[in-house]
Specification:
This protein has 14 helices and 13 strands. It has 382 residues and is an alpha/beta fold. Bound molecules: 4'-deoxy-4'-aminopyridoxal-5'-phosphate (PMP) and glutamine. 4'-deoxy-4'-aminopyridoxal-5'-phosphate (PMP) binds next to helix 5. The site of glutamine has 5 residues, from loops.
Length: 382
């Protein structure tokens, strides 16, 4: 057996969702909406399914979707990307992350990662024989420690992989932080893998800025989006990578060896989605902002320390004010078993045991009645 894989635990999202099911808990753990995505997107996929569009699509994605990804890049960010040479469609952002890492990393190369980090990053970097260099944001403000980040880059750095808007912190990287990262990338002549799956889920006027739009970054960034988040269809697993034509052939070869292609009918649905009008995208974030506010207010009333969320599906809370005696894993287990509400322990997003262990992450991509019921259960429990 591969020792790196046997040392990798089952993902926390699967563990907590199973525990929620076992205890009849409301699942505010794993980040998936309890409402469906846009009807026209689903209809377009269903029509393609019935239309006999069911055989292998082109390796890099169906033309309609590559064109839609390109148009979306131009509309929202002014990024010009050739749909025939600079877009690769993958089976979810999860595959996209692996494909981008495979495209640039050789064994022994260093890859900078920012903690807390999404749970697939570290195992994949290690599987490729690359060396992770971890830099930690410190709560509650999750500021970028600039000196530490600079020190993590060196002659062996090949790439940085990071996520904005960020899971689980809800942080949106500022223009100044991105400029700092861009300088390091240029100085060390390396690449960035930009996990931007929550690009449209920002609140309070926060705007997502792709690192790719900064000077000198167009050729160095692999920008990743996900239909799961942008269309509330997390089970579809359709992701898309935008990158320079010099990188795309290697990204495509990685995709060729991972999955080769992605369900063509779903791709056609996502193409319709990316062409939706601006109101759709504005409504997506304003709808989620209202859910965030509802959950944040209720959690604060119960006594949680509620950290600000600028983007994503998630609120991070400090549960110490509740007087709970135990770490985040114990807290999330007790909350599931006793209060019948499930959250995710934030230590799952850290590589080592010295992580802060007093935070629990709640997902707010849920119906209002579900949020209210979860809050009522927790109110009765504390
Ligand atoms: N990156 C981050 C930060 C995520 O939260 C997720 C969760 N869905 C993914 C990547 C994976 O996205 P997908 O479902 O499209 O594979
Ligand atoms: N991205 C989702 C989350 O953070 C979960 C995805 C998964 O279950 N792997 O909750």
């Amino acid at each position: 057996q591969n020792s790196l894989l046997s040392a990798t635990g089952t993902t926390i999202f699967t563990i907590m969702s199973a525990l929620a099911l076992e205890h009849g808990a409301i699942n505010l753990g794993q980040g998936f909406p309890d409402y469906d995505g846009p009807e026209d997107v689903i209809e377009a996929a269903a029509a393609a399914l019935k239309d006999g569009r069911n055989q292998y699509p082109p390796l890099t994605g169906v033309p309609e979707l590559r064109q839609a990804v390109s148009a979306h890049n131009r509309r929202f960010y002014g990024i010009e990307a050739d749909p025939n040479a600079e877009v690769v469609v993958t089976s979810g952002a999860t595959e996209a992350i692996t494909a981008c890492l495979m495209a640039v990393l050789n064994p022994g190369d260093e890859c900078v990662l920012i903690e807390p980090l999404y749970d697939t990053y570290l195992p994949v970097v290690k599987l490729l024989g690359a060396v992770p260099k971890l830099v930690r944001l410190s709560p509650p403000k999750w500021e970028l420690p600039r000196a530490e980040l600079a020190a993590a880059f060196g002659p062996k750095t090949k790439a940085i992989l990071f996520n904005t808007p960020m899971n689980p912190t809800g942080k949106v990287f500022t223009a100044a932080e991105l400029a700092f990262i861009a300088d390091l990338i240029a100085k060390h002549d390396c690449y960035a893998i930009c996990d931007e799956v929550y690009e449209h889920l920002t609140f309070d006027g926060w705007k997502h800025i792709p690192l790719m739009t900064l000077p000198g970054m167009r050729e160095r960034c692999m920008r990743i989006g996900s239909a799961g988040k942008t269309f509330s269809l997390t089970g579809w697993k359709v992701g898309y990578i935008t990158c320079d034509r010099s990188l795309a052939p290697n990204v495509a070869k990685a995709h060729q060896n991972l999955t080769f292609t992605t369900a063509p009918n779903l791709q056609r649905g996502v193409a319709v989605g990316l062409m939706k009008d601006d109101d759709y995208f504005a409504g997506l974030s304003s709808g989620l902002q209202a859910r965030r506010d509802r959950l944040a207010k209720g959690l604060a009333e119960i006594g949680f320390g509620v950290l600000p969320t600028q983007g994503s599906y998630f609120i991070t809370t400090d549960f110490r004010p509740l007087g709970f005696n135990g770490d985040d894993v114990a807290f999330c287990r007790a909350l599931t078993e006793e209060a019948k509400v499930t959250a995710i322990p934030v230590t799952a997003f850290y590589a080592s045991a010295d992580a802060p262990s007093h935070y629990a992450r709640f997902a707010f991509c849920k119906g209002e009645a579900v949020i209210d019921e979860a809050l009522a259960r927790m109110r009765n429990w504390v």
